[in-house]
Structures are given as C-alpha cells and as structure tokens.
Write a structure and sequence with these properties.
- With 203 residues, the protein is of the alpha+beta class.
- The chain has a single domain, classed as Beta Polymerase, domain 2.
- The chain has a five-stranded mixed sheet, with helices on both faces.
- Strand 4 and strand 5 form a beta hairpin.
- Helix 3 packs across helix 4 and helix 4 runs antiparallel to helix 5.
- The longest helix is centred in the C-terminal third of the chain and has 18 residues.
- 28% of the residues are buried.
Length: 203
C-alpha cells in the first residue's frame, strides 16, 4: 500500500477525505487475502461503497461485499477472519448483512459485508456502485450530499447515514438494473451471474 494513502478511521467518527487512487490497489490486495482465507465459499468479492468510485469524497474505510450461497457456509469465518484482524458483529440490523470490521476501534480500515448472492442486498450494493460509476450528475449530487451531511452531523455517525438514506432510496428506485450492458467501460452479464469485474473509469 502507498505510504501517502489515507486509510483508517476511528469507530463512529464521521470524516470525509478526497478519493485516494491507491484505494483500488488496497482493495485488490485485501480481496486476494480474503479469497485465500475463505476459499470457494466466497463466490464473489467486490469493492463497494464510496471508496470504489473515483471523484467521490469518502470516509477512509474500504467497504468489501462478499457473496455466499448460504449463511451456513460462514460459521467458521469469525474464527478465520479474527486471525486476519477482523471483528465479527453478526447481522446487526437483521437485513441479511453479516458485518466484519478490520482493525481496532481507533483505526478501522476495512468493512466486510457478507450477503446472499441471490439477495436484494447483493444486487443493491452493485447497483448503487455501478450507478455512481456510470452517471456523472448523480455522482456529483451524491458528493455534495455527503459533504453537507458530514458538516451537519460530524459528531453522529447514525445521523450522517440517515441524512443520505432518502436520496439513496430515490436513486435506487429510479435507476433500472440492466441485465446486460456496460458500466464505465466494463462489460457485465448480471448482478448474480456476471463475471467478477473491475470497472474501467474513463476520464
């Protein structure tokens, strides 16, 4: 990882930084490590959230979504990932999203979200990321919203998240999910069956 890359945030803190180009390489390195640890039960490992989208300000924590066929397959993951520095928090909100955080409370660096590959949760992670990658006006609007929310709710992570929820839901409802096509120059077949894909950003 680059020595000058900004990565790491205190648990519960709201702090945005400019997009770091090195985040992509940091994700790939962590993805390879996770794939080695978790084996074939980790069907897809994707970079999601704002750190996956160039030009977006973001909290300096990299979000990773992992798709599995069944949650029965992850029974051993808390023990396996503990050795890699992760803490397991379970399905905190009851939405079928099992959450792991890497690093101590003072310096979280990666969030891992484990979801079912045929779930709306998995599709939504990819859909929102791909919408931001493909749509510049939406990306700019989201960047402005994030900055305003961070300014208004710097001391409250939950309020910061809530301030974005209605806008995100509206975008998700408005944007159709294509079965085939390209996103920022990257071909894909579908959210479930499509091949692992590293989007190519054309500037």
């Amino acid at each position: 990882m680059g020595e000058d890359m900004i990565l790491g945030l205190k648990r519960g803190e709201v702090r945005l930084v400019p997009h770091q180009p090195e985040w992509r390489a940091a994700f790939v390195e962590e993805k390879n490590h996770l794939a080695l640890l978790l084996g074939e039960s980790a069907l897809r490992i994707e970079h999601v959230g704002s750190t996956a989208v160039p030009d977006l300000p973001s909290k300096p924590v990299i979000d990773v979504a992992i798709a599995v066929w069944s949650f029965a397959e992850i029974d051993s993951w808390p023990t396996i990932l503990k050795e890699a520095g992760y803490t397991y928090f379970g399905d905190r909100e009851g939405r079928g999203d099992h959450f792991f955080a890497k690093g101590p409370d003072e310096m979280r660096t990666f969030y891992v979200h484990v979801v079912l590959i045929e779930s709306d949760r998995w599709r939504d992670y990819l859909k929102f990321r791909n919408t931001l990658l493909a749509n510049s006006p939406t990306r700019v609007a989201y960047a402005d919203l994030k900055r305003q929310a961070a300014e208004n709710h710097a001391g409250c992570r939950s309020a910061y998240t809530e301030a974005k929820d209605a806008w995100i839901r509206r975008v998700m409802n408005e944007e159709a999910w294509p079965a085939t096509g390209t996103v920022a120059g990257c071909a894909f077949r579908s959210a479930i069956a499509g091949p692992p894909c590293i989007p190519v950003i054309v500037r």
